[in-house]
Amino acid sequence: xxxxxxxxxxxxxxxxxxxxxxxxxxxxSADGQPHVTTPQRYDALLLAGFGGPEGxxxxxxxxxxxxxxxxxxxxxxxxxATHYRHFGGVSPINAQTQQLREAIEKELQDRGMxxxxxxxNRNWTPYLEDTxxxxxxxxxxxxLALATSAYSSYSSCRQYREDFARALLNTGLAGTVMxxxxxxxxxxxxxxTPFIEGVDKALRQFEAEQLAPEEIxxxxxxHSLPSADGERSGPPELAxxxxxxxxxQHKAVGEVIMEQLRFELPSRAGTQWELVYQSRSGPASQxxxxxDVCDRIAELPEEGIKAVVIVPLGFLSDHMxxxxxxxxxxxxxxxxxxLRAVRTATPGVxxxxxxxxxxxxxxxxxxxxxxxxxxxxxxxxxxxxCRPGCCENARRGFSPAAAGLVP
Length: 407
Description:
Distance between the termini: 32 Å
Structural class: alpha/beta
CATH class of the largest domain: Alpha Beta
Strand content: 5-15%
Strand order of the largest sheet: 2-1-3-4
């Protein structure tokens, strides 16, 4: 792939235009350069997760945390709660984040990198505020954060940056603890490789059943967003079209996956793919990114499709939106449509994914030049320091955030 990067294309600001300091940042990131050029020492890693309930009594309090400030009554939250209650009120996401933490720790140890890994969540224990206090108490005040989300949008990037700022401000540790954040890694080989392997395995299964390439459709699924938030994902200057950087990044990764699989087996040229969305939760009057995965599945038989490969491209692990919205609802939609269906694996703790995350940590610590950074699409490598106005929340506007230029 060409060594292009978002700073050098689409009219994005160059380094000379970024003089505003970055709140809560280390020295190497504080000047706001899109990609750091000075190697940086860190005391520890901060693994930032979404969080999830651990039992039936936790479900509603957890959902209240997730929807705080939106005024959603408990009766409506209970509709979503049924998904968690189906699994005993326990979300798998905490256990999966803990497994990822342990895998990262082992990879760091194997490389001789002396970096403890702290874990804090946005919506459930362990909360980020407590985690930051724990790190500071241990003398670890220079933190490099890894968010458990690969793409650009408010909820998958900026909200984590706001979480960091809130944790520092609420604990009184602003000015003592510094937090930088690893770049978005949607097109890093470590993230993409597990998906390539999963789609290849699913296609081979259908091919062994004598299905023609034209009879198979690959559906890359990701969490839907309000359309206004999608438009605001990424820096405003990039102007990446409908769905903003969020949609553009997913589409670019989907194209890379299918190009690789068609290169390995040219007969797959007839297998088409598309990006679909899931897990919409807003009112019917609010436009969200479409098409919905179940709606598309219902339409595919009329297009001559006999089998679907459902790829959870927007997710790191098999948490609730995968287990319920894909494994239950999407698979049921496929059965009702008379389609064969396979849902591929998420990266989880795949060795290449874990290795890739630690590669990204090393890249940031060493200030690897942009031209030497691993990326598989022309959108990457993404920014180390988020640009002004990046991933605004359309409803609430801007709140204080770490790891990026104001606002």
